Amino acid sequence: MTTDLTSAVRQADLLAVPAARGTCPFDPPPAYEQARRRAPVVPVRLFDGTATWMIAGYHEVRQVLGDPRFSADDRAPGFPFLSAGRRELVTERRAFIRMDDPEHARLRRMLTGEFMLKRIEELRPRVQELADELLDRMIAGRREADLVAEFALPLPSLVICMMLGVPYEDHEYFQACSRTLLDNSAKPEQLAAARDGLVEYMHRLAEGKRREPDGGIVSRLIERGELSPDEVASMCLLLLIAGHETTANMTALSVLALLRNPRQLARLRMEPEVTRDAVEELLRYLSIVHTGLPRVATEDVTVGGRLIRAGEGVLCMLSTANRDEAVFPGADELDLDHPARRHVAFGFGVHQCLGQPLARLELQIALDRILQRLPGLRLNADFDGLRFRHDLVVYGVYELPVAW
């Protein structure tokens, strides 16, 4: 028997999202987990009191993300927003992750070749060189550092700048703007200023590449001659933000999780050949895109025994899907022996993360070089005093003080 959103709202007080985290900062909010154990699809309440569906179960998340009857277009009526700022930021100028096929497929296809596994693997020696150079500077004559500021953030920033043809000397500007754009607590005017500033920056960069091509992704997109200046700017802006924020936070949070799990840390030090599997398990366990992937139904669809009507929004919770014990036994434990490769940390379906081969490569190299070169690595702060990025779309830590 199916239950629709209207009757579900009448029957119960709704969980507010985003919900508070519990005592373990690596776990999804306890309220999400409790809801998932009751049912894989539950009604929840957004910031403005609007009801929407939270998709919490693994199979149900994959069903929704793989179903073209759920739209990623944030202009569609009923699309769920996590803040007033995000709702007010919607314009006609959209990144392709906020488009549906065939428009989405047309633009995504232009970037697919840039992130093919073979091409990304060719970057491995250079990325390892960059990692070692950063570590050389970090440890020179010192015994402590902030791993976020001095390694986890610079490494993916350097790599994505290299790939796009973006001057790395501008990194402080685009990192500050991207942090604002990912902040669910930012005011509409702050979000608009950050977005407009970065769009203008990318327009100027693209125009420069038009005059003087350099072989980077921006230049190659322009040379295709198929994209408008706005399309080039929005595509490259998405790559710039996603290319450093996600991997930077995943790197720092992974190191912290390993430091809190010394048995797994020791295993990874002694058996570096398991690094690839370790990265998959960390992606599953941490799921740093933690606020849910938003979609809206364009037709009536039944998911997990719930009738989701056309025009109703959904939030696909990757974090709870990756902790679904029906799929991942012992899911609440970090265990490098877990068969974790079926995780949905990169999403699922046609919008699955385009840059996942690059993210995997960077994470593999980052963890290997940190653990091999800093055998005495330890947390250099009170764990309970660390500042976690609760209000940002991409979860992580603001600083990670370490010593060796």
Q: Can you give a write-up of this model?
A:
By secondary structure, this protein is of the alpha/beta class. The chain has one domain (3-403): Orthogonal Bundle (Cytochrome p450). It has helices at residues 5-11, 30-38, 58-65, 84-88, 103-112, 117-121, 124-139, 147-152, 154-164, 171-181, 188-211, 217-224, 229-259, 262-270, 275-286, 318-321, 356-373; strands spanning 3-4, 15-16, 41-45, 51-55, 70-71, 144-146, 293-297, 301-303, 306-308, 313-316, 378-379, 401-403. It has a 6-stranded mixed sheet. The chain has a 3-stranded mixed sheet with strand order 1-9-8. A 3-stranded antiparallel sheet has the order 6-12-11. A hairpin with a 2-residue loop joins strand 8 and strand 9 (306-308). Helix 10 (171-181) packs across helix 13, helix 13 (229-259) packs parallel to helix 17 and helix 15 crosses helix 17 (356-373). It is globular, with a radius of gyration of 21 Å. The relative contact order is 0.18.
* Alpha-beta content class: alpha/beta
Tell me the number of strands.
Answer: 12
Terminal CA distance: 58 Å
Q: Could you say how many structural domains there are in total?
A: 1
* Overall pLDDT metric: 93
Rg over alpha carbons:
21 Å
Portion of residues in beta strands equals: 5-15%
Major beta sheet, strand line-up: 2-3-4-10-7-5
The stretches of 5 or more residues where confidence is low (pLDDT under 50) are none
- Described by the principal axes of the CA atoms, the overall outline is globular
In percent, how helical is the residue content? Answer: 40-55%
Major β-sheet, in short? 6 strands, mixed
Q: For this structure, what is the CATH homologous superfamily?
A: Cytochrome P450
- CATH architectural designation: Orthogonal Bundle
Order of SSEs, N→C?
EHEHEEHEHHHHEHHHHHHHHEEEEHHEE
* Count of helix runs: 17
